[in-house]
Amino acid sequence: MDTTKLLDPGFNLTLRPMRYPKFYEMYRDAIRNTWTVEEVDFSLDTNDLANKIGPAERHLVERLVAFFATGDSIVANNLVLNLYQHINAPEARLFLSRQLYEEALHVQFYLTLLDTYLPEPAARARAFAAIENIPSIRKKAEFCFRWMDSVQELQRLETPAQRRRFLLNLVCFAACIEGLFFFGAFAYVYYLRSRGLLHGLAGGTNWVFRDESGHMAFAFEVIRTVREEEPGLFDDELKADVVKMLEEAVDCEQAFAEDVLSGGVAGLSPRDMRQYLEYVADQRLAQLGLPKRFGARNPFPFMDLQDVQELANFFERRVSAYQVGIQGEVAFDATF
Asked: Which cofactor does it need (predicted)?
């Protein structure tokens, strides 16, 4: 009987018998969720930007696309440099390979978005250099690198301390970056959509959101599996670090919210965004099997539920190439 654990060093190549069929099913679901950037129609967005958006909303949009320009690249680099070599199951690596493709697709989507929204080359250059020249985005990037880069020098996860460092990397990646930073960004997109603005951005974000939901589900399943195999890793110190990390992530994203909303956007306030971020952070803690920290409720009715397939149909976007892999409704507070 194979007693190899998921984080044991090595490079297992044996797909049969399959130790973790759940990961393989997640890979197959991801394959069924295929879309292309060319399907996103930005034709209405350009008119909105020219005629329907004021200075405050324009600042929001420009900050948002500047974050998008770098966010998924950070995630992709972490997949290649830190995750793939340490999750020792070929069926799990199948999913990570597919996720890397999806992250590249998101980068292409945001590249197209920037080229459409920021026609001036100088403005595009500033957006792609956001980590250097926009303090609220630099703060988020520094947070990511501090929590994730601590495992880059590890070639093998030999000790419990090394495995805990890896788990903290995975929690940062899944709960904080994909599960909080991007969910905060999605709130701005869906707020604009609720006002009938930027349907192309909303349509592409529906598909990105669906991908990100699958990525989070996979990462939380890895964490659940490791916790089952090695319960001793989840000691009080690790749990305290996770809570500290999420508190810091909320603070980082709140600094971004205060920047994004600095022009005064009707219907959105930094206070409401703080409440929403605390609400999302509590959902992530619950998914990790930890007590909720903030006790916040969702202040945004437009974020109660995102059934992305129906939304795509609502905006009459072609979805034939984007099949249903995550069945049914996709809720922002779903427990994967």
From this structure: Fe cation
Task: Compute the distance between CA of residue 293 and CA of residue 237 in angstroms, rounded to an integer.
Answer: 16
Among candidate residues 169, 164, 175, 277, the one with its CA nearest the CA of residue 217: 175
Buried b (16+ CB within 10 A) or exposed e, 75-97: bbbbbeebbebbbbbbbbbbbbe
Annotated catalytic residue, options 20, 24, 27, 110: 110
The helix (H) or strand (E) run that includes residue 130 is helix 130-133
Neighbours of 47 (CB within 10 A): 10
- Which is it for the CA torsion 323, 327, 333, 335, positive or negative? negative
> Which amino acid belongs to residue 290?
L
Model-level pTM? Answer: 0.89
- Annotated binding residues for Fe cation, written as ranges, equal 72, 103, 106, 178, 212, 215
> What tokens were used for 5?
């654990």
- Distance from C-alpha of 32 to C-alpha of 331, rounded to nearest angstrom: 20
Q: What type of residue sits at position 302?
A: F
Tens-place pLDDT, residues 235-272: 999 999 999 999 999 999 999 999 999 999 999 999 99
Contact between residue 172 and residue 144 where contact means Cβ atoms under 8 Å apart: yes
3-state SS record for 54-97: CHHHHHHHHHHHHHHHHHHHHHHHHHHHHHCCCCCCHHHHHHHH
Q: Residues forming the annotated binding site?
A: 72, 103, 106, 178, 212, 215
Asked if 110 is an active-site residue, the reply is yes
| Topology (CATH level 3) of domain 59-314 | Ribonucleotide Reductase, subunit A (1.10.620)
Q: How far is CA 320 from CA 51, 77, 109, 304, in A?
A: 32, 31, 18, 26
Residue spans of the chain under pLDDT 70: 1-2, 305-336
* Secondary structure, 3-state, 19-44: CCHHHHHHHHHHHHCCCCHHHCCCHH
Q: Contact at 8 Å (CB) between 322 and 34?
A: yes
